[in-house]
Write a structure and sequence with these properties.
Elements lengths: L13 H50 L3 E4 L1 H14 L4 H26 L2 E4 L8 E2 L1 H13 L3
Parallel strand pairs: 1-2, 1-3
Length: 148
């Protein structure tokens, strides 16, 4: 056993300085590690938000239907003028009118199914929509002549 008066000799500056040095050295490391981690998390959040915004814009653009215009009144007026000039019986005129109506409906339905757009009448649109009237009129003429 050692005397109580005997003390272990420890250099005065070694123990407290070593403890201080360790804590001082660890603090900047912890700060830089936390700072690096928070920058990484913030960058990931920004990346996810940007990716989400891009996907939203693409989906919205792809899913938006095209708006087109068809001159229904002009087409029907042209048909009436052509039938008024012909000398058809009342029964033949009724059959021709029914055939025209069916052809008109079939042409518009086929165009909408093929292109997936929204067809509006010409009077409802001021400007900015594509006019598909010639295309529909040509399809009606083919159907009226009996061509598929």
């Amino acid at each position: 056993m050692q005397d109580e008066n005997t003390q272990v000799s420890v250099p005065e500056h070694s123990a407290p300085d070593a403890v201080e040095r360790l804590t001082d050295e660890n603090r900047p490391r912890k700060r830089s590690l936390l700072r690096r981690r928070s920058v990484y998390i913030a960058a990931c959040v920004v990346l996810v938000l940007m990716l989400s915004a891009c996907i939203s814009v693409l989906v919205t653009t792809m899913m938006q239907p095209a708006y087109v215009v068809f001159d229904m009144k002009g087409t029907i007026d042209t048909f009436r003028q052509q039938t008024a000039q012909s000398s058809l019986t009342k029964e033949a005129l009724e059959a021709l009118t029914k055939r025209f109506g069916a052809s008109l409906d079939a042409s518009l339905t086929r165009w909408q199914a093929t292109h997936g757009g929204i067809i509006l009448v010409k009077g409802a649109v001021v400007s900015g929509a594509v006019d598909i009237t010639p295309e529909i009129q040509a399809d009606i003429a083919r159907q009226m002549q009996g061509a598929p």
